[in-house]
Amino acid sequence: MELEMHMDEYLPLRDVVFNTLRRAILKGELKPGERLMELTLAERLGVSRTPIREAIRKLELEGLVVMAPRKGAKVASITERDLNDVLEVRKGMEVLAISLACERITKEEIEHLEEIEGRFKKLTEEGNLTELAEVDVEFHEAIYQATNNKRLVQLL
């Protein structure tokens, strides 16, 4: 199975890796119980182990990965309740992010959001769901960055 990484000039590499692994887990490309070996993932994605390690920690916080002592990380079995819990927490953090972004956003960040919105509209009209999902992630990431709150961005 090939993991496809979508580079984004506005996102740190660890976030690109996180989004790639998260997408693969949610799509079922990485199966529940499957071991996530840093070296193997680093080779598959063409990155060092550091962004892989950071992404795995973030996935563990979301409940998508579980860590086992001396065994490493593996994809968590996700129940509907688990997914709802994650989404509730994420919703609360996103409401905070929107509030902070509204207070702190710069003119350049507004222009970037408008550019993303234009691509979003075009892809919606074309019915290109795969790229639409990627642009949606980019839109959210742009809002997170506009909060100017590094801790919140790390959690999201």
Question: How would you sum up this structure, described in words?
Answer:
Helix 2 packs across helix 3 and helix 5 runs antiparallel to helix 6 (129-146). It is built from seven helices and three strands; from the N terminus they run αβααββαααα. With 156 residues, the protein is mainly alpha-helical. Helix content is 67%, strand content 6%. The chain starts with 12 loop residues before the first helix and ends with a helix. It has a three-stranded antiparallel β-sheet with strand order 1-3-2. The protein has two domains: 13-75, Arc Repressor Mutant, subunit A (Orthogonal Bundle); 80-150. Strand 2 (65-68) and strand 3 form a beta hairpin. Keywords: DNA-binding, Transcription, Transcription regulation. Residues 11-78 form the HTH gntR-type domain. This is GntR family transcriptional regulator. One of its GO terms (molecular function) is DNA-binding transcription factor activity.
Concise overview:
The chain is mostly helical and 156 residues long. It has helices at 13-27, 38-45, 49-61, 80-104, 107-126, 129-146, 150-155, and strands spanning 35-36, 65-68, 72-75. Helix 1 crosses helix 3 and helix 2 crosses helix 3 (49-61).
